[in-house]
Amino acid sequence: MPRDLHELIEGAYRSRRSQTRTIVDGCLSRLPHYQGLPASLLTEIRESILTHLAIFYRITLETGRPLEPADLEYSRRLARKRATQGIPLGEFLTFFLVGLSVAWEHIVESAGDDPDLRAELLDRVGAVLSNQTHLMTALTEAYVEERARLSRFREQDLDDFVQLLLAEEAVESVVEARARALGIDPREPRMLVVFGLPRPPAGQGSSVGAQDVRRWLAASIPTAEVWVGRAREGFVALVPEGVSTKSIAGAAESLLGEGVRGGVGTPARDVEGLRRSAREALRALRIGELLGGTKRVRRFRDVALFDLVDIGSERSEEFMRRVLGPLLEPGVSPDYLATLHQLSASNYRIKVAAAALGVHPHTLSYRMKQLRRRFGFDLEDPELRLRVQLALLIERGRTGDAAAADSG
To answer: Fewer CB in a 10 Å sphere around the end CB: N or C, the chain?
Structure first.
């Protein structure tokens, strides 16, 4: 290397701290994520700039050789660290683009009008561009790899968290610690939603993941953050309080198909509430599956009566048969059961129930007498009315009466 070029590079190398200040000031003025960073991290950033300026002067300009894996090891570690810290890739790489610009402009200015020095620098442009490309590629690869690794861990952490919400034996302090580690503030009002897992065609695995569901929900609810994990029971989502079931159902159908079912728990504002909301959402999902009908997503508050009678259980089935048994026997006209349904729905107002059934009120009064005489249904008894109403709820869910279920 010519002596004057060597001295030029040495002078630029010795002034690298002032160049670092220029690079940091320029980047902080234009990169939002770096503004307001703690002093400790800014010190670390300055050290990384000094290291990369040394690589630029000592390797690229002095030797002109390509960067080797050992030369880039520090850069890769730095990229992985910035990925872990959540610094955006674009802003991270901007430091290196600005750094090259500042360093190159500085050494060109230092060369002045000396034609020999400028010619020597021009000969090194190819090496500078090649090594800069190599460096940016290594930084990007390391950053993306680390983000992918972190994403896999985060997905697993979310899955573990929603499984804890649904577990009966989970310890609240553990659930709260997991929530805060994921950046979820349990005090923020949220609802839990559980979607039944999609059923893929025979012989094929499902290609839909929790992050797919999250993206679709986030697109339907753009004003708030949404978390989604996967449990044995289905996809579990935390959504803001007050989101409409129409928005939730629309997003789910777009991704999981028209057959998807979902349940929504009541709003929660603490860990205990989140666990309750999760159990309610799962129960609403199960009740919706029993009821069938056109509603894809049901709120627990809308099916709480079905939960009260423990619909779908052997106990509720036994209760329903004990109350309505005589009307379920073969050969008994279905008009009697339909009569009970309409009387219950109309609060035992004869004219309203008769109109709904399409019969004369006298005909309905006759049926009521027959119900008392033949089957023992004394509908003047308030306690019997309550038992009948509960039994009819169970019977409605048991038979999948979609029209009646969707009217509730």
So the answer is: N
